[in-house]
Amino acid sequence: MIIKLLFLFLGLIFTNANNEGYCDLKTKTCDHDFFKEKFILYDVNPPEGFNLRRDVYMRFAIMLSDAKKNKNEWKLILPPWYRLYHWRSESKSSPIHWSKFFDIESLKSFAPVVELHEVFSKTEINILNIDRLYVLQNFPDPFEDGEFKDKWEFGEDCDYDGEFWGYNNITFTEIVCVKFQGRISNLWELIALHPSDKFVMFAHGEIPLHDHYGTKTFWDCRKSMKFNKDLIETAKKFMSEHLDCKEEKCTSYVSVHWRRQDFARSRRKDVPSIQGTVKQLDTFIKKNTPNVVNVFIASDGQNSELTQLESQLKSIGYRVHFFVPSMSELDDFKDGGVAIIDQIICSHAAYFIGTFESTFTFRIQEEREILGFDSSTTFNRLCPDSGKCEKPSKWSIVN
Ligand SMILES: Nc1nc2c(ncn2[C@@H]2O[C@H](COP(=O)(O)OP(=O)(O)OP(=O)(O)O)[C@@H](O)[C@H]2O)c(=O)[nH]1
Ligand SMILES: *[C@@H]1O[C@H](CO)[C@@H](O)[C@H](O)[C@H]1NC(C)=O
Ligand SMILES: [Mg+2]
Predict the structure, then answer these.
(1) Distance between CA atoms of 69 and 113, rounded to whole angstroms?
(2) 39 bridge partner residues
(3) Is the pLDDT of residue 173 over 90?
(4) What residue ranges in the chain does DSSP mark as E strands?
C-alpha cells in the first residue's frame, strides 16, 4: 500500500514536472535542454489544400527564423498532414509526417522546426497538453475606416474546428478567441502575454499574413523546402525513362498543369474545355518550341477527361505522358507524394503552362524560378475558351 502510494506520489511529481519540461519515468531523468524549449503549433482551415498550407508553413517558419536571430527559444512543431480534402485515396489514413514529403534536415537549416512525433517521443507521459489554444478569426470588415490595418483583439464565440490531426492525446488548458489581421510577427504580442506558456497553438494559421512577401528571406525559406529524396528520385527516373531528359533544365518536353475537379466546376471563366486545351497547347508549342513532341500532363482530372485529352493530342502528333503510380508507389508516397512528383516533373520542363490562380501551379512556378529558368518559359497559363485571359502574375526569385 505504502509502495503504491509512493509510486502514485512519484507519478504526480513527474506529471507535474511535465508542465515545465520532459521527464522519463523509467530512468527518472528530465531532459533539461528540451525542458528549456517552448513550442508553437498551428493548424489550418480544414478545407484548404496542400499547396496553400505550404505557404502558411513559410509564414510561421520565417516568423520563427527571424525570432531565433534574437535568441528566442521557441520552436515550430510541424503539423502532420491529415485527411486533406483532395486526397481521396486516403480518407481513413493516419496523420502523415512531414518527412514523407520534405527533407526535414533542409527545413531545419532555415528554421527551428521539429516534427510532432519527435516531441511525442521526448515524453513518457501520454498527453501533450497545450497551454493556450488561440483560435484566430477574421475581422468582419477588414477595411474598417477604408484601410487595411494590422490589428488584433480578443473575440468571443469560437470553437476549434480541427481534429488535432486525429490524435486523441492532445489536450489544451485554455482556448482563446482572437480576431486578427495583418503581419504574422504580431502573434508575438499574444504569446508575450503569458510568458510561462510552453505549448501555444494557433488554429486558423492561414489568417496571419507574411511580414514581407517575395523578399530574399522569403526565397531562402522557399528554397529550404526541398522534397523528400525518394520523390525526387522517382520523378527523375520518370524524366529519364519517358521524357528523354537527364538534366536539371530539360529541353525535350513541355509540361502542363491541367487543374480540373473543383476548378472546372467553379472557375469556368478561368479554365478551358478539353478541345480548347488541345488547341492552346498546340499553338503554344508551335510558337515556342516547335521541335518538341513530348507533353507531360499533371492533372487531378478524371480518367475519362484525361483519355480524351490524350487521344486528341495524339491525333495531332504529340506523345502524351502522365505519371501513373503503381499500387505500391501510391501506397508508399500517398496522394500527396504523387502530386509532388507531378510538380517536380513539371518544374524541369522546357516550358510550363499552368492553371490560373492555382496554388499548385504557383508552387511549380517558384520551383522553376529556383532552378533558374527564364520567366518566359514559366509564367504561362491556359486561357478560357472565350472571354478575357489575364496574364498570370510573375513572382521572380530574389537571391
Ligand atoms: N497528382 C496531382 N494532384 C493534383 C494536381 N492538381 C491538383 N491536385 C490535387 O489537388 C490538390 C489541389 O489543391 P491545392 O494544393 O490547394 O491547390 P489549388 O486547389 O490548385 O489552389 P487553391 O485552391 O487556389 O489553393 C493538390 O494538393 C493535389 O492533391 C495534379 O496536377 N496532379
Ligand atoms: C499520442 O498518440 C500517438 C498515436 O497513438 C502516439 O504515437 C504518441 O506517442 C502519443 N503522444 C504522447 C504524448 O504520448
Ligand atoms: Mg485548393
Answers:
(1) 14
(2) 75, 199
(3) yes
(4) 22-24, 29-31, 38-42, 74-78, 113-115, 128-137, 151-154, 170-181, 199-203, 253-258, 294-299, 319-321, 351-354, 380-381
The percent of residues in the chain predicted with pLDDT above 70, rounded, is: 90
Indicate whether 22 pLDDT > 60.
Answer: no
- Residue 122 Ramachandran class (φ > 0 left, ψ -120 to 50 alpha, else beta): alpha
**CB-facing half-sphere around the CA of 352: CA atoms within 13 A:** 32
CATH 3.40.50.11350, domain 227-377, yes or no = yes
Nearest ligand to the C-alpha atom of residue 84: 1
Please give the distance, rounded to the nearest whole angstrom, from the Cα atom of residue 66 to the centre of ligand 2. Answer: 30
* Spatial distance between the Cα atoms of 9 and 3, rounded to a whole number of angstroms: 10
C-alpha cell at 94: 493516419
| 83 Cα to the center of ligand 1, angstroms | 14
Ligand sitting nearest the alpha carbon of 87: 1
Distance, in Å, from the CA atom of 307 to the CA atom of 184, rounded to the nearest integer, reads: 44
The answer to whether residue 30 scores a pLDDT higher than 80 is no
Specify the ligand 1 atom closest to the Cα of 259: 6
CATH class of the domain whose range is 2-220: alpha beta
pLDDT band for 33, please (50, 70, 90 cuts): low
Shared fold status for 2-220 and 227-377: yes
Q: Based on the residue annotation, tell me whether 48 is a catalytic residue of this protein.
A: yes
Q: Is the pLDDT of residue 35 over 70?
A: no
Q: Compute, in angstroms, the gap from residue 284 CA to the centroid of ligand 3.
A: 26
Cα 51 to averaged position of ligand 1 atoms, centre (Å): 7
Residue where the block lists cell 511525442: 120
Q: Which of 48, 115, 163, 305 is catalytic?
A: 48
- Give the ligand at the shortest distance from the Cα of 340: 1
Check residues 278 and 269 and name the one with the higher pLDDT.
Answer: 278
Ligand 1 close to Cβ of residue 368 (< 6 A): no
Ligand 1 close to Cβ of residue 86 (< 6 A): yes
Q: What is the DSSP letter of 367?
A: H
Higher pLDDT, 7 or 343: 343
Q: Which of 13, 24, 65, 63 is nearest to 42 (CA)?
A: 63
Mean pLDDT for the stretch of residues 328-341: 96
Q: What is the mean pLDDT of residues 128-134?
A: 97
Domain positions in the chain are 2-220, 227-377
- With the most atoms of ligand 2 within 8 angstroms of its CB, the residue from 14, 39, 126 to mutate is 126
Given a cut of 80, is residue 10 above it in pLDDT?
no
